[in-house]
Structures are given as structure tokens and as C-alpha cells.
Amino acid sequence: NEAAISAARKAKSTIGWEEIDNAVDRIMVGLEKKEGNSVAKQKELIAFHEAGHAIVGALVPDYDQVQKISIIPRSNGAGGLTFFAPQESRLESGMYSRQYLESQLAVALGGRLAEEIKYGEDMVTTGASNDFQQVANIAKRMVKEWGMSDKVGRVAISEPSGGGPFMGRMMLRRPTQWGNKIQDVVEEEVERLVNNSYIVAKNILLNNLDLLNHLAQVLIDQEIVSAEEFQMMLVEFKAKTINYEILGKDQNRSELPFQDLPM
């Protein structure tokens, strides 16, 4: 219906792929804002942020293909978006490998990392807040629900279930079946996953700086980069997918930003 309406507004007698593509975008992420990103500095920042997501997504193993990159703001509040086309087999089965999930963590951090590389750690923005929520959720579920931590083991760590909405609610909660020691290990493992994903994404972007700068500039100029255009860039800049490898066992805190802040 959305595609048909769009075609009618353009006085077209048939529905083309452009109308279908735009209709899917509207349903998924809202309407395009006509005014766009009018502030040049903001437009550049969003372009680098989305370029970071796209490049990491293209170069981590076992991940979905980049379908489109856009820095046109949407009515849902997004300043830009990188669209990925999930593999049909994954959608049908609902099953995701450990490698895929670790790659997803790196992709989600790619936007913030592009900001850090371009503008420095002190000039990063709040634009990655949704990305961080996604990272935290995936990492916790990998450790606590899906048995993807060697230290925690192949177990599901249950959470206390709630009681009533009154002062005695905490007393009515069922205690967790696991002690504080394993809960500490859970926190350490979640941090390990996030820290190492950060390092993976950073290395990808630092090794492909020319591609990052080029993609961001093209986005600034034309606001949308198609899958075909992006694939041509990957070939032009000789970008290569990193090797399949499970994230390391160390936390690697020393390689993260903001080390001088008080603990």
C-alpha cells in the first residue's frame, strides 16, 4: 500500500523498486524529514558514524550484507541509518552463531569508534546510545542465557523474579540460584566481550581509514549510498574481511578510552 501511494503521488502507472524500497524504509524506520541534516558539522558527524557501522559490518566474518547507508534523518529520531539484509536461513531458523553475535557487537560499536577516530575521544556524542543498549543486551544474553562463555559455562543464569509493587516486593522475590561469585564472573565476561569487540572494530577502521574517509564524504555529498556503490568502494580500496576468530580471553581495559577517569 505504501509503495502504491508513493507511485500515485509521482503520477506513475506502475510500482517500481524505488517505491518498494522507500515504502519498506518508511514502515521500518519512519518518514524521511524533508529538511534533512542542514548543519554541515552534524551532517559530517552522522556520515562518519554510519560509515563506521557499514565498514565494520562488511569486514567482520559471518555477518549480514550492507543493503543501504543513509544520513537522511527519520521521523523516529534517527539521524542516519545503515541497513543490513539478514540471511534468509538465519531469519527462518532464528539461530545465530557465536561468531555472528560477536560480529554484531563490533558492528554496533563501529559508529562510535568512527566518531572517536575522526574527532577524538573528547568530542564523541550521545548518538551511539541505542548502539550501547544493543551491545549490552547481546553481551549479557550471550553470557547469561546462551552458554557462550567458557568461564561461566553452558548454563543459564536466572534472574530474580518480581513480587508485588509494594515496599515488601524485595522480600517476596525468589532468590537467584547462583551465588555472588558466579555473578561477578558474569560481569567480567560481559566486559570482556564488549572490550574485545571494541578493539576488533577499532582495528578494522584504522586499517581502512581511506575507505572510511571516502565513504563519509560520498554520504555527505549524496546522502545515500546503495549496496552496489558500497561494494564497488570495498573493491576499489581493497578492503578484506578479517579472519574468523572468537574474541580473546583478556579484558584489555588498557586499550579502551577514558583511562584517566576515576574508578
Summarize the structure.
This protein is mostly helical and 263 residues long. The protein has helices at residues 2-9, 17-29, 40-59, 88-93, 98-119, 129-144, 169-172, 180-206, 209-222, 227-236; strands at 65-70, 81-85, 224-226.
Which strand order do you get reading across the main beta sheet? 2-1-3
Number of strand elements: 3
Strand fraction band? 5-15%
Element-by-element helix/strand order: HHHEEHHHHHHEH
Provide the structure class. Answer: mainly alpha
Report low-confidence residues grouped into runs of 5 or more: 160-167, 170-174
Number of helices: 10
The best one-word shape is globular
Major β-sheet annotation: 3 strands, antiparallel
Explain what this protein looks like in three dimensions.
The structure is a single chain. The protein is mainly alpha-helical and 263 residues long. The chain has ten helices and three strands. The protein has a three-stranded antiparallel β-sheet. Helix 1 crosses helix 2, helix 3 crosses helix 9 and helix 6 crosses helix 8 (180-206). The model is unreliable at 160-167 and 170-174 (pLDDT under 50).
